[in-house]
Amino acid sequence: xxxxxxxxxxxxxxxxxxxxxxxxxxxxxxxxxxxxxxxxxxxxxxxxxxxxxxxxxxxxxxxxxxxxxxxxxxxxxxxxxxxxxxxxxxxxxxxxxxxxxxxxxxxxxxxxxxxxxxxxxxxxxxxxxxxxxxxxxxxxxxxxxxxxxxxxxxxxxxxxxxxxxxxxxxxxxxxxxxxxxxxxxxxxxxxxxxxxxxxxxxxxxxxxxxxxxxxxxxxxxxxxxxxxxxxxxxxxxxxxxxxxxxxxxxxxxxxxxxxxxxxxxxxxxxxxxxxxxxxxxxxxxxxxxxxxxxxxxxxxxxxxxxxxxxxxxxxxxxxxxxxxxxxxxxxxxxxxxxxxxxxxxxxxxxxxxxxxxxxxxxxxxxxxxxxxxxxxxxxxxxxxxxxxxxxxxxxxxxxxxxxxxxxxxxxxxxxxxxxxxxxxxxxxxxx
Length: 431
Ligand code: AMP
Ligand code: MG
Fold this sequence. Notes:
It is a single chain. By secondary structure, this protein is of the alpha/beta class. The chain is built from 14 helices and 17 strands. Strands 2-1-3-8-7-6 form a 6-stranded mixed sheet, sandwiched between helices. A 5-stranded mixed sheet has the order 14-13-15-16-17, with helices on both faces. A 4-stranded antiparallel sheet has the order 10-11-9-12, covered by helices on one side. The structure holds adenosine monophosphate (AMP) and magnesium ion.
């Protein structure tokens, strides 16, 4: 049944590269593509890892084509002699290769842009295209992707992608997926997802609170818990429901059931990043933001500026690591530091107020804590963190004892501090 042209599409993924077999590089591309393909309703039925050898690549392709309608190979499209995927695929499928002049021009431009007068001879091979193959552009690198139908069975397709993860992902999302949607619309299992992003509640606690709210039968909706250091994402999924409205209604119903437990911890963000949710609330109130960071050492500022568009609201940050800098730059009282210690409610609040004065902004965040592994005490063990936020005259400070190593404590601290300001701004944009 699966072989019939109208059956459900099945995929196989082949990772090509000696380094993957040595274990020097882990095949993260295969895992990433498996997730992506599943999300888009294309089950992966087989995954292989093969050496940079023509015969091995060819026999793997043949075997994969016997069980799958779509075979994606990644890796081995580079310019060096050990990159053999393109040639091996063309040989196996009996396809001649010709040089694509447009690709030669593109490669020349690319090398010129990086200050090379001439295109290295080796790179010419990256302009070779097997007959029947369509070129999928790679703006992030020199190896283009290729997509072709199999001569013996044109209902089957083979895609070639570069191994560099960033390039592979770019081509996959921007070039390959749109083509698959066009070629196989009715053969991709319809999948509808809804993401509910939460932060500030542990996975086990959330699951416990959800239990009494959810019946055993969720009406075709499955629920997945996806915990990260920064929070827990809930993913609701409806599979194999061709009617989009029916799927949406089923998702709405479960979302309403969850609401009482999640609403206090939920944030709205397409990217899943709390920073985007916070930016939206700041933007709605036309507030500018500055940060004062001790134990997070600039991590909050980094997270904010990681997102495009940060300049529309973010003024800057101060890493106030030592007491001296907290005093001199943020106006924290030396007495307060001596009395309460740097990791205290008073100092967190004083840092947040100091940042407001220093940067002249509408909203601030401050963090002070003990990230470890040293510096903890009985009263303030490693992981103790005070964080504060101000919006105009409103201010709030909280403390937590975060679990984990230094890295985890810093990541959790940054998220908690961002979340404090997010909550302070309120749903309707008022603190
Ligand atoms: P290639 O396209 O074969 O020249 O691979 C270029 C680089 O991409 C390799 O040096 C690896 O670091 C990386 N790479 C290749 N294949 C994979 C894979 N399956 N998963 C993760 N990284 C990969
Ligand atoms: Mg390679």
